[in-house]
Design a protein that fits this description.
Blueprint: H1 2-7, H2 12-24, E1 28-34, E2 38-44, E3 50-56, E4 60-62, H3 65-70, H4 75-86, H5 89-96
Antiparallel strand pairs: 1-2, 2-3, 3-4
Helix pairs in contact: 2-4
Length: 114
Amino acid sequence: MVTHTVLAQVEPSRLQNAVDGLVSGAYTITVTGQDEAEVSGFVANGDGKQYGVVLTAARAFCSCPDSMFRHTICKHAVVLALHVIRTPQAEAKEEARPVNLKLGRVRPGWQACA
């Protein structure tokens, strides 16, 4: 699993910082894609700065300066990985499912969309 591969490479202090922030609710996580080979999403800090994160078995990418300049696995990548592990994919799909709307009568001359 991609998340486990990423977490196995993280420095202990970064892992602890990410866990602390995740538990305290300091991050807002939005998963935009998830399959066996890749996890992608956005992680926003408490100050509202949002970073794009992509996790693969070969690499963890984040748009934050820490990841971009130091070429390390940052806390945002760790937070996304931990979130995906804690949130089963079936639940994530359930939350993202569109709401079915019931429409009233269609006015004469209007056509319903197919």
